[in-house]
Amino acid sequence: MLPAENKLTPTTPKKDTQGAVGEASYEGKSVDLDSLSKLTGFPVDFIKKELALADSEVPLEDLRKSMLTFLDSTFEGLKAR
């Protein structure tokens, strides 16, 4: 469960008409990187560097994009080996 200080409240995702999981419940929300650091055990500076983030509070949508970019590049690097 996420700590209360990041103000994300877990909800049941809604499905749109195509059956995809919607993001409406988290729209406009931000994630505090100090909280993410405590949850993951990674230092804030490491998270910022690896995910190419500048601020200590990041919109959830931007965090998701950065994480996907990081994962894509990591998997591409593993495929090249």
Q: Would you mind describing this structure in some detail?
A:
This protein has 81 residues and is mainly alpha-helical. Helix content is 44%, strand content 7%. It has a two-stranded antiparallel ribbon with strand order 1-2. About 6% of the residues have low confidence.
Which series of helices and strands comes N to C? EHHEH
Mean model confidence by pLDDT:
79
| Largest β sheet strand count, sense and barrel closure | 2 strands, antiparallel
Low-confidence stretches: 16-20
Give the % helix.
40-55%
The strand count comes to 2
Specify the overall morphology: globular
Q: In brief, what are we looking at here?
A:
With 81 residues, the protein is mainly α. It contains three helices and two strands.
Write the layout of secondary structure elements.
Blueprint: E1 30-32, H1 33-40, H2 44-51, E2 57-59, H3 60-79
Antiparallel strand pairs: 1-2
Key features of this structure:
globular, 3 helices, 81 residues, mainly alpha
